[in-house]
Design a protein that fits this description.
Layout: E1 2-5, H1 11-25, H2 35-39, E2 44-52, E3 55-63, E4 68-73, H3 82-93, E5 99-103, H4 107-115, E6 119-129, E7 135-142
Antiparallel strand pairs: 1-2, 2-3, 3-4, 5-7, 6-7
């Protein structure tokens, strides 16, 4: 497994990996009309992917204001610490504090962040609707 910066040539494989995650976990909750655009928000500065044998197994991005976004690992690749490796790649590239938000429904993600020393600094309601049909409860974290 290798973690490297995402290139434009990786986008088809990233969308395919995202589709696998969406089918298994409903992340993102609503499939975007433009998944490539969803993976590349306007304030994105860099993105990394975890690959093996030509397949994208995981993805993470960082925004201008040092927020971790679009972090996911395909179902078949879970249990191999890929999310932690992706987060380590961001930490190595971006000096200083990082932040992220995660839906309260993301129990495995919350457990990973808290095991890794991320600190919850607050919670808020999202503008989007979660699987229960209500505004999602988002937890906000900062890195250790």
């Amino acid at each position: 497994m290798k973690v490297r910066l995402r290139t434009p040539e990786d986008m088809d494989a990233c969308v395919e990996a995202l589709a696998q995650v969406h089918a298994a976990d409903r992340y993102p909750v609503d499939w975007p009309d433009d998944p490539r655009g969803w993976l590349t928000p306007a304030d994105l500065t860099s993105a990394w992917i975890a690959t093996e044998a030509g397949a994208v197994l995981g993805h993470v991005g960082i925004t201008r204001d040092a927020e971790i976004v679009r972090l996911f690992v395909t179902p078949a690749a879970r249990g191999r610490s890929l999310a932690a490796h992706l987060l380590d790649s961001v930490r190595a590239a971006v000096r200083g504090p990082l932040k992220l938000e995660v839906s309260s429904e993301g129990k495995a993600a919350i457990a990973l962040y808290e095991r890794s020393g991320w600190r919850r600094v607050g919670s808020s309601r999202a503008k989007w609707i979660n699987a229960a049909g209500e505004p999602a409860l988002l937890h906000h974290y900062v890195n250790p």
